[in-house]
Amino acid sequence: MVTDYLTPMRASSEPADAATTSGVVVAVSRSVGHTFSKQNQPRITLVAGLGVADDAHLGTTVKHRSRVARDPTQPNLRQVHLIHAELHDELAAAGFTVRAGDMGENVTTRGIALLDLPTGTRLRIGPDAVVELTGLRNPCAQLDGFQPGLLRAVLDRRPDGSVVRKSGVMSIVLSGGNVELGDPIEVELPSPPLQRLGVV
Q1: What's the pLDDT tens digit per position in 34-67?
Q2: Using an 8 Å Cβ cutoff, are 56 and 31 in contact?
Q3: Is 112 in contact with 23 (CB distance < 8 Å)?
Q4: How many CB atoms lie within 10 A of CB 163?
Q5: Which helix (H) or strand (E) holds 92?
Q6: Which fold has domain 21-188?
Q7: Cα 200 to chain centroid, rounded
Q8: Residue 65: count of CB within 10 angstroms of its CB
Q9: pTM for the complete prediction?
Q10: Spatial separation of the C-alpha atoms in residues 132 and 77, rounded to whole Å
């Protein structure tokens, strides 16, 4: 049974680039423990208001260990982590070997410019699941423990000097359901004003 937390939402008056309006799931991953990488699965189940079933980050309050140490009552805005497979392509071209799930994401996408989407964007994944983007994943030094130099490879700078964090986006689950390889992803932009994703 799918629980639906959705509320009505108007589409943005600004048209999205065609590359950001739809995509596909190329892998799904989860881990019951707080491991750096997550294991690929045939499918995962998203649970409304909680996250990914049988994943260490499932819950209404924050599960990231350093954040729990600071304040365990914070809301969990990092229920589902998504990374675009195009980042893996970029890293491969730079000499790294990074596969889906290696950097801890739950859903690996292709065809959507995740980092260009604003806060509040909703992604409809497969027949039932809907997630809402809450912010960017802040890459940490654990990336260099996985492969030396990887942290620097997922950071960049805009012309204005601001930092670009390329290691994926975080989201909360609005509507639950199963997600698996090949599922379509549809983008619903929030109503204006649009706000660039910040770090959560």
Answers
A1: 999 999 999 999 999 999 999 999 999 998 878 7
A2: yes
A3: yes
A4: 12
A5: helix 85-93
A6: M1 Pyruvate Kinase; Domain 3 (2.40.33)
A7: 11
A8: 9
A9: 0.88
A10: 10
